[in-house]
Design goal:
Blueprint (H helix, E strand, L loop, with lengths): L2 H8 L7 H23 L18 E3 H22 L5 H23 L7 E3 H24 L11 H23 L23 H17 L2 H28 L16
Antiparallel strand pairs: 1-2
Helix pairs in contact: 2-8, 3-4, 3-5, 4-5, 4-6, 6-7, 7-8
């Protein structure tokens, strides 16, 4: 079976939208480049990778910065239920998945995460916030455009719901583990333990990617697949950068631990 036939079985035909077509390429290219930059040491300026000594860099608190990153995408997820007409179960599931994903992130910022002494560069907060917002808008718009197109012969939306729930649950669980590493008032970083942290450095990234694989299976559009591919490439790069950071900070950090995918990567 040729790759073209596989895509025809799994995805809606690409919509006749120049915007969606361009954004599909941009999503893969820009995030793959961002992941490569992370490996090379050029990081997005937030969390432990914030360079507080960089000149002319306006910084805000981690809590405000992270809240600003996720809120616009969450608000558009809610608005999409009123902006776009109902196109059936698949469209409803996609909007619910994206809205729940960013609602979870907002609630984690407010009630779960414990932030260290680092912050977020203002330009990074704006860039990431705009990226999340634009990708959410585009994914929902691409699904809207699929209305009336031939359905994929292999229906993956229920598989997608299962993967999404597994991904969002696993991501939350490992974020909770990270939040319990520091006691009240503590700022220093520690080596995470428990869950899949015993196998990989960034299991929360693994489950985040798994969740977006679920979203792609719900949507079954070219853009959703391109976005998920780009997100995975970026988070792999961020995971390698995290490994390098831990090795530089902790002499007893295990050097053979996988970065993101248990037993594989």
């Amino acid at each position: 079976m040729s790759p073209i036939t596989v895509f025809q079985n799994l995805l809606f035909p690409p919509p006749s939208s120049i915007y969606v077509s361009i954004m599909s390429l941009v999503s893969v290219g820009s995030m793959a480049n961002a992941g490569l930059s992370e490996i090379k040491g050029k990081h997005l300026q937030y969390s432990k990778f914030l360079n507080s000594k960089e000149p002319k860099q306006v910084q805000i608190s981690s809590k405000i910065g992270m809240f600003a990153m996720y809120s616009p995408a969450f608000l558009f997820g809610i608005a999409s239920f009123f902006v776009f007409p109902d196109h059936g179960l698949r469209f409803l599931l996609l909007r619910f998945a994206l809205t729940i994903h960013f609602l979870k992130r907002v609630l984690e910022v407010l009630f779960v995460h414990r932030f260290g002494g680092s912050g977020v560069a203002l330009d990074t907060a704006f860039t990431v916030s705009f990226s999340y917002f634009l990708s959410t808008v585009t994914m929902i718009y691409a699904q809207h455009l699929s209305e009336g197109l031939p359905e994929p012969s292999i229906d993956l939306k229920y598989v997608g719901v299962g993967l999404f729930l597994l991904g969002i649950g696993g991501n939350f669980y490992h974020h909770y583990i990270l939040s319990t590493l520091r006691k009240t008032g503590e700022k220093e970083y520690k080596i995470p333990k428990g869950g899949l942290f015993d196998l990989v450095i960034c299991p929360h990234y693994f489950f985040e990617v798994l969740g977006f694989v679920g979203v792609s299976c719900i949507a079954q559009t070219l853009y959703s697949v391109c976005y998920t591919t780009g997100a995975a490439l970026y988070l792999i790069g961020r995971s390698y950068a995290t490994r390098k950071w831990y090795l530089s900070k902790f002499e007893d950090f295990p050097k053979d631990k996988k970065v993101m995918i248990p037993f594989i990567l």
